[in-house]
Amino acid sequence: MTYRIIAGGTLWAFADLKQLMAKATPLRSGDVLAGVAASSAEESVAARMCLADVPLKQFLTEALIPYEADDVTRLIMDSHDATAFRPVAHMTVGQFRDWLLTPVASPAVLSALSRGLTPEMVAAVSKLMRNQDLILVARKCRVVTRFRNTIGLAGTMAVRLQPNHPYDDKRGIAASIVDGLLYGCGDAVIGINPASDNIAVLSDLNHMLDEIVHRYDIPTQTCILTHVTSSIGMIERGVPVDLVFQSVAGTQKTNQSFGVTLDVLREGRDAALSLKRGTVGENVMYFETGQGSALSAGGHHGVDQQTCEARAYAVCRAFDPLIVNTVVGFIGPEYLADGKQIVRAGLEDHFCGKLLGVPMGCDICYTNHAEADQDDMDVLLTLLGAAGVNFVIGVPGADDIMLNYQSTSFHDQLYIREVLGLKRAPEFEAWLQRMGLTDAAGQLTHHGLDHPLLTILEAS
Amino acid sequence: MAKDLQAAHAARLPENRNRALTALTDARVGLGRVGASMPTEEVLKFAYAHARARDAVHADFDVETLANALEAIGHRSVSVRSAAPDRMTYLRRPDLGRRLADDDRERLDALQTEGVDIGIVVADGLSATAVHVNAVPFLAALLPLLHSAGLTVGPVTFVQNARVAVGDEIGALLRARLVLVLIGERPGLSSADSLGVYLTHGPLPGRSDAERNCISNIREGGLVPPLAARKAMWLVNESLRRQLSGVALKEEEATLIGAAAEG
């Protein structure tokens, strides 16, 4: 179906919904690389005007990627909840934006709506939104998940402690863990990106994390960020796995390039659930995503990268994850060229995930060949803190020496807590107090120089 | 004494730098804090490391110096460009970095080589600095190994603004049985000069990354060039013997290394 609009005395035409969505997307290098971006600034705004008039219902009949060709499209269509959709079923995309910004769209209303929305609807409305709209609406979406603590409560923000080491040296990893804990980090997860994919090494790291969490009775969960099949392998060998990790994307072909199918993800979740290791809840999955992965894998089907990304959240939410993390600036400048594009993408991803009912966090990050620096990360961290992000990443000094990119530091999370008054997951906050690391207000009080947690180093 | 030291630390900023941690990892642990924030010294150290990495990304590729150094060890070279016209375009358009500029393709084709065992491509990639520092030491170690194995080697081809896959096109034009691409890796804060070497058997445009083998982190302080050359030679021999490269070869390598570790 062709979409047309007259704007500024010009007739603009768009061949189909897929093209309309792509051209309505705020400029980013990945869409230019894919050849789907608007050819002028005017065309982009004309596309947005045209998209504003499209009924939300249209997304239920015009699939951007054919139902027959893609299991993510099938997942989206088959799991759509028509009853939940009813309150907004009569709206256009533009009307939906207006409605989302009103107080009628309360946290409870948005929570009830989430299963009635498809990723394409959510991506479409985000394209009409300014950054402040993305913040305002996301802030109203509450997605609370539990394993050994409670993540996503209003006024809280958790941190993944990311203690990576270039050759998985356990003492080096332990040093980063101790450092992070002393800064009050680790409530989202203590999660290692291993350098190795050898199952014996992975199992050893997993045992080490399990030992730390249990010895010090830390109300948090651990994760080795390895392929889902490796986690299943560990579980089969009796390794105490808390969370099962996987990178996922919004198309079947891209997921294939990651070596996963929806069935394998289901197996991974079942395996983790079988261990019954959660104490306050059963959210056992940890997913990572990021704009550009579909194009990078040649699996984008001509769909813009932001819409592909939103479709990845439909994959995530089918498996009730504890945490989902958009690794926003990791992929490089060919997909998100600079600080402005990274900031915009981070806000879009967080908004789309939250509106779909996904527990979104963000790895606020960049690589050295992007036009970005730590100032841009400060901006995005501040905006996502205001938007109510469920968690961010904590890397020693913001410098990941294994993955060779820059994220946010233990200091950065302290900064945003101080500016916005954000608390940690309540169980973890209470533990920090018991350990004498924080006061009743959550402020760090201990210098950490002779803290009992330093004994972690002796054991490792 | 320890107490005094602690008191001294506590008395000045950063009051809580944790030295018990810093010896255990290169990660930026134990930095101390001023209020919630990073101490000035650490902010500036970080900024310096980032500046060095940025400069490596944008450094000009000094082909002439490298070509002279190669000539000094008796090896000829040729210089070409990718289809990316400048550095900023290169960074945003990986597709252009994987292809040769049209006139350079014709030039290489006109060389009409009769076919060689090994094609060698030296590409700036994301860090010309890495190539400037490590390419010649690596080749100085590798070329004698190749020659003494009786393998023929084509002219070293320098490519500006290039990605790994450009080696497929060059290897095909040189009629090489396999191609080695030496390329500057994406600079990190701790190393801006890390070189990667990618091996592809039967180079042809359209080869996938799963059909390559990689040796990464080649630099002083990482995998030193002479050792990297020996690893590369092992891969070359195995690749030619089995007539393949990529995942299948990698699995065998892992098994051999695993067996060596157990034995």
Automatic annotation (TrEMBL), chain B:
InterPro entries: EutC (IPR009246), EutC_C (IPR042251), EutC_N (IPR042255). Adenosylcob(III)alamin binds at V164, E185, C214. Its EC number is 4.3.1.7. Binds between the large and small subunits. One of its GO terms (cellular component) is ethanolamine ammonia-lyase complex. It is an enzyme of class 4 (lyase). It catalyses: ethanolamine = acetaldehyde + NH4(+). GO terms for molecular function: cobalamin binding; ethanolamine ammonia-lyase activity. Its cofactor is adenosylcob(III)alamin. Keywords: Bacterial microcompartment, Cobalamin, Cobalt, Lyase. It is found in: Bacterial microcompartment. Its main location: other. GO terms for biological process: amino acid metabolic process; ethanolamine catabolic process. Pathway: Amine and polyamine degradation; ethanolamine degradation. The basic unit is a heterodimer which dimerizes to form tetramers. The heterotetramers trimerize; 6 large subunits form a core ring with 6 small subunits projecting outwards. Catalyzes the deamination of various vicinal amino-alcohols to oxo compounds. Allows this organism to utilize ethanolamine as the sole source of nitrogen and carbon in the presence of external vitamin B12. Belongs to the EutC family. This is Ethanolamine ammonia-lyase small subunit. It comes from Ferranicluibacter rubi. The gene is eutC.
